[in-house]
Structure formats: C-alpha cells, structure tokens
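Appendix C. Worked example: FADS6 desaturase
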Amino acid sequence: MPLENQDPVRWRGQQVNGEVSSTSRLGGTGDPQPQGIPAPDSSRTEAMTEGWEPGPALGDGDMTPGGALQQAGQEPGRCEEALMAELSELVQKVVKSSSWWERHGMDISILTCSFFLLPAGFLCLRSAQAIPFLVGVLTLGVVHHTLSVKGGHLASHNALTESKSWGKVWAIFFIELCSAFTAEQATYNHVKIHHGYTNIIGLGDSSTWKLPFLNRYIYMFIAPLAVPIITPLVALDLLRNVEWKAALRTLCCMFMGLYCHYWLLLHISGFQSPWSALLCMLLTRSLLAHPYIHVNIFQHIGLPMFAADQKPKRIHLMSLGVLNLPRNALLDWSFGHSLISCHVEHHLFPNLSDNMCLKIKPIVSQYLKQKKLPYNEDTYTSRLRLFLQRYEELMVHAPPITELVGIQ
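Step 2, the predicted output written as structure tokens:
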C-alpha cells in the first residue's frame, strides 16, 4: 500500500509496488542480540511481547473525546505515544467486553478439533485406494500445521490462556512435542527479537528466512519441502544456548513427538517399511510448508527497514513494517488470523488470540487510516509475483535503510 504524500516519511531506495524494497542479512532473528544494540525499553518490551496495556494516562489537553490531538507544539515522540495509547484504549474496551469464548475459546476449540481429527487421518492411510489415502495425508498435514504453527504461535505469546503457568505447558506441548523445536529459543527469537525489533536491520528483520545461495525457484518452490528436516536440526543446534535441564526436556519432547508419529504410521496406518513411514511423515509435515515460508517473508521483507538507533516509535514501526494478506479458509484454520489477515493487529497487540485479532481488525484499520498511517495489505499472488521478480533485490542484497523525516 503506498504511503500518502502527506505521510511524514521519506524513503531512501527504490519502491516496489508502493513499498520500499529491502532485504536483510543472514542470521538476524535467530542470532543473540548483538553487543552495542540497546535492548528495548523494559516496560515497552513487556507490553510488546508478554502482554499489553493501554498507554500512559493522557493529560486533559492531550485529546478530545474523539481522539484528536490538541496540544500545540507537542513533541513528535509524545504525539506517537498518545496515538498508541488511544488505539490501545479502543482495543482494550473491545477485549474487556468480549467473552472468554471470544478471547480464548474459539481458538482452543479449533486446536481441540484438530487433535481429534488425528485418528481419522491415521485410519484413512490404511486404505489401498487413492482417494481415502490422499484424504488421510491431507488431514494429517492440516492437523500438523494447525497444532505446530497456530498452536505454537499462540502459545509463544501466551495467547491461549491468561495463566502463565499453563501458557508454559502449552508452549512445551505445541512447540516441542508438535513442532520438534525448542520452546525457549522459539519464544526468544520470535517474541523478544522479531516482535521487539520488527524490521530492525540485523535483529527482527526476518533475515533468518533468507538463503541467498539458493536461486528464486528453488527457494520458493523446492526448499520448503526440507522444512521438517531442517527444523529439528536447527533446534538441536540452538540447545547450546539453553540450560541443560531445558535441553534435556526438549530432546525428550522432540523424540516423543517424532517417534509417536512414526509409531502410529507403522501400527495404526499399517505401513510395511520404516522408509515408507518416514516418507509419509515428510509428506504430511511439509504439506503446507510452502505457504508457511511464503507468509513469513511476504509480510515483512520488502517493507521499510530501519537501523536500531533510528527506528520510529511503536505505532509507526508496526504500521510501516507489517503487511496483511487476505483471508483464506485453509490458512486461517492452519496458521491463524494473526499470521494471515490480521498480522498488523497481531504486531500491535501480540498477546491477543487469533479470534480477538480478527475482532479488533476493523477498529485498528479504521484508526490507522484515520490518522493517515499506513495499513499495508496485499494479495498472496501479488506478493509471490513480486518476490519472483525482485528476488535478488529482496532476498539476496543488503537492504536499504528507510530514512525518517518528521516521525521522531
């Protein structure tokens, strides 16, 4: 979505479909925080990652009842904090008026339904006929991605429950048992780094998704098939960064999840050889790997990128650097609204569930547009075409840093 002419931003670099083309270096979000890069303000980081609260109380002269800023000569930083506070207050009202079913129940029911579909999927694979067998592969593939991607993502943000203790349990179950990854590193890299430093060069710029030594067609259409193999290997490497007790727990959960899948294929689905069972595991676990990779790059890469010491305030950072895709029944179910059509809302309010992100979407979009802030939206096919055309620029070369004028 192109910025309006009056928006207080000036880009340095070529624009692509109204967006600044930018790429990032390898090893960004997955690396430890570099020395010399200040951590986000602790209170702000807490609001961004583990929960959020309305912003600081505003003075009588800050806003009218309608929300318009009135204080003349107000500092830009203060204005932006006031904007975020006003939007947070509008969203908080919706959250407080919502039932438990809307806040958590809807998404929990989707995960529960997916779990109960597992027996049907394994039994369908017993059939020697093509159609029931393919139904089994499709069922297990969708269930796997629903539990691992949607469940793991919500659990990493503690969005499935209001209890941090149960949130930890769900994170271990969905991330380690279902996804074969380490919960501590997944939460740190995604919540603390990616959300804390969204589109900040070398930190939360989605650069861990870059493999510049691959050409565009291999990366976009062939490499995703290796995700089920690469994921546990990366997890094993990251275990060096966690305590030995957590590492041991992760190893046990990863082994249990993978072995249970393998055992069920042999003893319930009736596969005759270990290799055929392993091949089926790879097939089901990579069924939606292509949109998984695509979504992770489509919604950030190619949008404005910032230096750590020159990033805009939170509301501008998220409105500039995050993009929503259209609703899609399959991806909404498997990945969740917060990763597809409500990604802007999710980055602004990361601890809300998928269903709540969908509920606040009209409020957030209307507010950002009313305040002349970007609200980036694009179609899946349009982004795919853009990345195929501009692959070298977006995924190989170093990104240009967006030059800010008037925001800070």
